[in-house]
Each structure stands twice: as C-alpha cells, then as structure tokens.
Amino acid sequence: MSDAPPPLSMQWAAHLARDRRRSPHTVRAYQATAERLTAFLQGHWGGPADAAALARVTAADLRAFLAVRRAEGLTNVSAARELSAVRGFLAFAAPDADRPRLRGPRVKTGVPRPIAPAEAVALAQEVADEAAEPWIGARDWAVLLLLYGAGLRIGEAIALPARILPLGETLVVTGKRDKTRIVPLLPQVRAAIEAYARAVPWTLDPAAPLFRGAKGGPLAPGMIRRAVQGARGRLGLGERTTPHALRHSFATHLLGRGADLRALQELLGHASLSSTQVYTAVDAAHLLDVYRNAHPRA
Length: 298
Description:
By secondary structure, this protein is mainly α. It contains 13 helices and 2 strands. It has helices spanning 8-18, 24-45, 51-54, 59-71, 76-93, 117-129, 134-150, 154-158, 187-199, 221-235, 243-256, 261-268, 273-294; strands at residues 170-174, 180-184.
C-alpha cells in the first residue's frame, strides 16, 4: 500500500470542498482546470509539475497553457475563468512563491451593448462560485438570473417577499411608483430560486424579503454589485458589465428575436414607451457591429 500523498489537484479539490465550502460543481470544474494545467506543464517542461516546480511557473508558461486552451475553442470569458482557477490553484500549491502577473483576455468595450448570453451565464456562475457559503452562491445565482432571465431591476429582485413561494409560472413584481406587473418565470429561473429557498439557513417569513444577507437580514443591493464587480474583473469584462446590464441584455435579446415593443414595455415595467424604444437603437447598433465584423465587403 502506497503512502504517497494524493495529487495536488485532488488536495486542492478537498480544500475547496472542506475549507472553502465550494459547491460540488465548482470543485469539479476547478479540479479539472488544475489537472489540465499540471498535465500541460509536465509535457511543456518534460518533467514533474510538483509543488516545487509550480513555485517557479512563469507568465510565459501560463501564456502557453492558455494558448493551447484557446486553440481548443475557449472564448475570452471561458479563458478568463480558466486563468482565475489557475491562479487559485497556484496560490494553494505554492503559497510562498512569487506568482507571475498575467492579465486575462479582455472583451472589447465601447458603446453600450448587451452582454452575450454566454457572458451573462458565466458572470452569474463566477459570482456564485466565489461566494463565501454554498447557500450564498445559490442566492446570488438566483438574483442574477432574475435580472437576466426575467428583466427585473436589482431593487425589484431583492425586494421580493418570501410569500412568492411556492412559485408558479409567473411572478408579480412591484416596480417604480409601486406599480405592479406580471412577468413569466423561465424554468431555469424558477429552479434557481427554489434551490436557494432550500439552501438558505434562515426561516423565510412570508412577509419578509426572500433574499437574505449573510447574517439573516435583508440583502443589500451593494453586495450583489460588489460581487459582480469582482467577477467581471476576473473574467475580463468591461466596466459596463453591471447588474443593470443584465436587465438591459434581457430586453435587447428579446427585441432582437422579434418581441413586440409594447409587450417588452410591460415586461420591463416602463411607464413610457419612449424608455423602451431606447433598445431599438442599441439593437440596431449591435447588428451593425456584427455586419461590419462579418461581412466580407463591409
């Protein structure tokens, strides 16, 4: 029977699950990244990728690793998440080493534009993965899906009372000037809220807010904004990637798929149609960007 310690990737996975209390999904994803990195470095160096070797890893080594991963089809956002996991693994494997400085890939910024669906999901997943507790990760995932999947304002989402449970196919939302509206709940959004409700350690009084802070009080919008700010930095997304940008993306993507402007006005809770018409110009600008980048004679 061998007394050899388990591989560093397995030790890191155990640390994430036991000490950092990360979700099983996060543990699997981060362990897979660590395994990919060590396998690459062994071939790259022609020798072992143990703790002593990882302490000497350079920015050039990481650039080579990311180049291979990008050749395998990783997007900018996925590559940035991979680099974030790599940094965490290296900090665990060689805590006293000087870690190489390497900026992740950035997404082009400029005029306001919607977040691509893959970016919106990656942003929400990154926020959830980095939460201090699994139930907080479930909470943040549910809140951000309400913004992107139902078009809620952040204030509307965190003000939802617990009496909305059990959920149906629609949700009554109280918006500005206490105006109520009914929005449909996608199955993914409903499942996220229900998973949070099962995980939250506090009793959910029907008259109290559904989403709770770490100590059981009402969730403050600043907590979500700060979590999104940290996640967008790790993913290389621009400063315009805010919680409100998820609502903006909900509207623009619906409009791009042929949604009626009046129906969209109702879904967003806009008092005036002119507020909703802003998205027509944004969608046209986005389509023009696609044309310029893709058309051979543009």
